[in-house]
Amino acid sequence: MKPETLSPLQASQLIEQGAVLVDIRDHTDYLREHIPQAISLPLTEITTGKTVEGSGEQPVIFHCQAGMRTSNNADELMKAVSSGKVFLMSGGINAWKGAALPTVEDKKQPLPIIRQVHITAGILILLGVIAGFAVDSRLFLLSGFVGAGLVFSGVSGFCGMATLLQKMPWNRAAK
What is the DSSP-derived secondary structure letter of residue 137? Predict the structure, then answer.
């Protein structure tokens, strides 16, 4: 049985009545921006057996960025709650903001790793194309190499660029 889905406004009302809101995005995403009442419990921790603490008999509402992670992992999320009713917030934090509900934002935190990967890959591909036309056609290989890396990442679930970016000084400071 799948958990019931709530709109951000319904979730907000339930939170006011004592429901526990759980943000399943990566902790760095949570630090950059989160819903004020939310606790951070990344999906990666939930799938390794971590549970929502302190919920008691209160309802638990899970949310992510846009709602896909919560709906795709509903069974795992239900296992993370020992008692009480489980809900999923449709549309995630994006829908929450779309409903003009408040968030806590800290722009000093680094961008989410996936956005850093998109920016870095885009720059490298663009540089490869420009250098391929302007300098030497062999420099098109840079764009091909980055494209192959993105395909590999999508197929395997491992992103070497994300691993490298996580080791950068601006990302280590956030931990």
Answer: G
**CA dist., res. 54 & res. 41, Å (int):** 13
Going by C-alpha positions, the residue among 64, 40, 44, 63 that lies closest to residue 52 is: 40
Residues 44 and 40: their CA atoms lie apart, in Å, by 11
Query: Is the whole-model pTM more than 0.85?
Result: no
Query: What is the secondary structure of 52-86 as a DSSP string?
Result: -TT-TTS-EEEE-SSSHHHHHTHHHHHHT-SSS-E
Half-sphere CA count of 118, side-chain side, radius 13 A: 5
Closest CA to 37 of 60, 21, 24: 21
| Pairing, β 4-6 against β 86-89 | parallel
**What secondary structure letter does DSSP report for 90?**
T
What are the residue numbers of the active site?
64
User: In the chain, what's the furthest Cα-to-Cα distance?
Assistant: 66
Closest CA to 82 of 61, 49, 43, 51: 51
Whose CA is closest to 93, among 64, 114, 61, 72? 64
pLDDT digits (tens, 9 = 90+) for 141-157: 999 999 999 999 999 98
